[in-house]
Design a protein that fits this description.
By secondary structure, the protein is α+β, with helices and mostly antiparallel strands. Helix content is about 25%, strand content about 25%. Bound molecules: dioxothiomolybdenum(VI) ion.
């Protein structure tokens, strides 16, 4: 029964959020709360020679200043610092020793009676260093790149096929370092109760942080509980534990009292980022648009201590029909913190390069860019040969094109205008993986028709509370107001981090598994009643609806749940079940989208406005039209930022970020956003998982940067391959 699933249900936590009742990690109070402020390194690489805290300690209200010399004990093996999603390498240890690995690294934690005192005292801490030479510039270190194993097997002889193709396109595309900039600052409040800690942390995975803290502090599992009931945006920046949570716990252990630590926006820039990358694409085709060869080489960056990388090149391998394909991937190690996942990691960037290159190939072929995509359309994953569990990209193209009016596009660049503005229309394809993870859900149903659904997953702002309530309400046959969702608490049944667009599918199917166990238990109770209307019914023959157990075959055969429980003499039913998903199998699992963009470019000034964006998305079953729309629209707007605004700039002489604030790191604001239309294309999928859900968190951004870049070319006849496309690049003579 689906009363709620698929509808535009408003957020069940909406009222709490807009009234301020929802509390975030830096908003928890505790008696005797101490406040922290972090002192960060001003050099990139070297060692701390001396830290002088004497002036800072004289400030009234300062409690203690922790450095690597006087901090409480911490574990000393790499293993202890490896969180669930850590890349290969030797994880960074906050305040562990005197070694400096990046500019902005924490070197001291000042704890005081209030935040202002801590911040002021932190400014008085003096640090002397022995400095070593550093490297932070990706472009100047390309010669030192290390080759990685390509993520997918090559097919055919791509070099030869490219060389002998009639129509060829080759170019390099670059994406700068970008930062997540969630609205909520990174924060942790460690509440001390006689040696045990409850840590409110801004994180996408409470159990990941809990296990990590137990490792770092050699604590027993019941000594540290991690809570994150609300999160003001994560986008990947909260997948791994951030250093402030370690410092907050260090502080609490040193003072034996509660500590709150909120980082500054500037300090957040030294935690994680989307790695800059340079990608070379070669496309070889026949004059009719049939692809002969795709090659995709990507060079990305990481720290000196961990090899973070994702598979930028895989998307090119699987998306389009091409007999030959090859990939290369290399990594440059720099004196910066380790890069991390940022919305649609590897697809936002890899698909940008591929889809901009496809547009350039279409120009070379004198072919409509959409027609080229249709010519190369593949019903199977080209890398593995596996068919898709479902793929309604064709319908995305056609519904998106229809809504946009694509058939009115003139082929030649600079051929459409509106007064001083050149008009450009561009399009691109988007793709992401439909992932799912093992998860455990506990449901407690009480005789008064109320249910509590519990799982340690997070709601990173995407609407997880709401979809969990919708699915549970439908599965248990209760009004949504009778469902209480508990999440974001490490003591709840296990869930991996919320990321990769995998939680909606995972937790929804998890709720189905556990609801079915509740149904089975209730059916047994109903059948134990004298003259039961459900005598002989099998579990699969009944559903829970309207507070009753009802036969699907004969809807008049019902037993009220309350009656069954009363007869059994119990007041509540609890089930906790783990759900696992088959990995791999005989199908590829992907979501797809088609993005259409209109830009208007002022011919004299080069100012670019994105006046229309249409995104048509095929992502299996959509659980909630309202939150899904918000998700995809947010992703599309972020794609505008990636195309036109976002860029983290480093002064390489000092290895320091110059625009570590949201005044100088530009993101789209309301005035930049005009018409954004989101279309969900029907896509029934009986294979991917029982509910047919594929996830939506990442797909929104994918394809948007290329669609806009392609529109800018169509408007101006000028191809800027180096993101972001700023007006200086556009107006500069080639
Ligand atoms: Mo997402 S980048 O896995 O939060």
């Amino acid at each position: 029964m689906t009363t709620y699933i698929g509808t535009a249900t408003s957020r069940v936590d909406g009222r709490d959020k807009v009234t301020g009742a929802a509390r975030y990690a830096g908003e928890y109070d505790a008696p005797d709360l101490a406040h922290g402020s972090v002192v960060t390194s001003t050099i990139v690489k070297g060692r701390i020679r001396r830290i002088d805290t004497s002036e800072a300690m004289k400030v009234d209200g300062v409690l203690v200043i922790l450095t690597h010399e006087n901090r409480p004990p911490m574990a000393d093996s790499d293993k202890a610092y490896e969180d669930d999603v850590a890349p290969e390498g030797s994880p960074y240890r906050p305040l562990y020793d005197g070694e400096i690995k990046f500019n902005g690294q924490p070197v001291a934690l000042v704890l005081a009676e209030d935040f202002e005192t801590a911040t002021y005292a932190a400014s008085l801490v003096k640090v002397d260093y022995d400095e070593q030479p550093h490297v932070t510039d990706l472009e100047r270190q390309l010669g030192n790149a290390v080759a990685l194993d390509p993520p997918a097997k090559p097919r055919g002889d791509a070099a030869k096929a490219f060389a002998t193709s009639d129509i060829k396109h080759q170019a390099d595309y670059s994406v700068p370092i970008e930062h997540h900039n969630p609205m909520e600052l990174f924060a942790s409040t460690a509440v001390w109760h006689d040696g045990k800690l409850t840590v409110y942390d801004k994180t996408q995975g409470v159990q990941n942080v809990q296990r990590y803290l137990c490792g770092v502090f050699e604590a027993k599992p019941d000594e540290i509980r991690v809570m994150s009931p609300f999160m003001g945006g994560g986008f990947g920046s909260g997948l791994r534990p951030q250093y402030q949570v370690v410092l907050a716990v260090l502080g609490a252990r040193a003072l034996k009292r509660s500590v709150r630590l909120v980082l500054t926006r500037q300090q957040m820039y030294m935690i994680g980022y989307r790695p800059a990358m340079i990608q070379r694409i070669q496309l070889g085709a026949k004059p009719d648009g049939t692809l002969n060869a795709i090659t995709h080489d990507a060079t990305t960056m990481t720290s000196q201590y961990e090899d973070f990388h994702r598979n930028e090149t895989t998307w090119s391998g699987l998306l389009y029909k091409s007999e030959a394909a090859s990939y290369a991937h290399s990594l440059v190690r720099l004196d910066l913190p380790t890069a991390c996942d940022m919305r649609a990691p590897s697809a936002a960037t890899g698909v940008y390069a591929l889809e901009a290159a496809m547009d350039e190939l279409a120009v070379a072929l004198k072919m409509d860019p959409l027609e080229l995509r249709l010519k190369c359309y593949s019903d199977s994953d080209q890398s593995t040969g596996l068919p898709f569990s479902s793929k309604n990209l064709r319908e995305c193209y056609s519904q998106g094109a229809e809504a946009f009016g694509w058939n009115k596009r003139s082929f030649e660049p600079r051929s459409m205008r509106d007064g001083n503005d050149l008009i450009g229309w561009g399009m691109a394809t988007g793709i992401w993986e439909a992932l799912q993870v093992p998860i455990t859900v506990r449901i407690t149903l009480t005789g008064n028709g109320h249910a509590e659904v519990a799982c340690a997953t997070s709601d990173i702002g995407t609407g997880t509370y709401t979809i969990m309530a919708q699915v549970a309400a439908d599965m248990l046959g209760l009004p949504i107001d009778n469902i209480t969702v508990k999440l974001g608490d490490s003591t709840l049944p296990p869930s991996p981090v919320e990321g990769g667009s995998w939680i909606a599918a995972s937790v929804s199917n998890g709720i189905v598994t556990t609801s079915n166990a509740i149904r089975d238990e209730l059916l047994k109770m109903a059948q134990a009643m004298p003259n039961s209307a459900l005598k002989g019914a099998q579990a699969d023959d009944v559903v829970l609806t309207n507070g009753s157990i009802m036969s699907k075959k004969n809807p008049r055969s019902t037993v009220m749940v309350a009656d069954a429980m009363r007869h059994a003499g119990i007041e509540r039913v609890t089930q906790e079940k783990a759900t696992k998903f088959k990995k791999g199998g005989k199908h590829a699992h992907n979501t797809h989208s088609a993005i259409f963009a209109e830009v208007k470019v002022d011919e004299q000034l080069g100012v670019i406005r994105v006046t229309r964006l249409v995104g048509a998305v095929a992502a299996g079953r959509i659980l909630n039209l309202k939150t899904a729309h918000s998700q995809v629209m947010g992703g599309m707007i972020w794609g505008m930022g990636m195309a036109l605004h976002e860029e983290t700039l480093i002064d390489h002489r000092f290895g320091r970020i110059m625009n570590a604030n949201i005044a100088e790191y530009h993101v789209p604001v309301n005035a930049d956003v005009h018409n954004v239309e989101v279309i969900f294309v029907d896509e029934q999928d009986d294979i991917v998982n029982p509910m047919g859900i594929k996830g939506l968190g990442e797909i929104g951004i994918v394809g948007v940067p290329a669609a806009i870049a392609n529109a800018v070319y169509h408007a101006t006849g000028k191809r800027v391959r180096d993101l972001p496309i700023t007006l200086d690049k556009l107006t500069r003579d080639a």
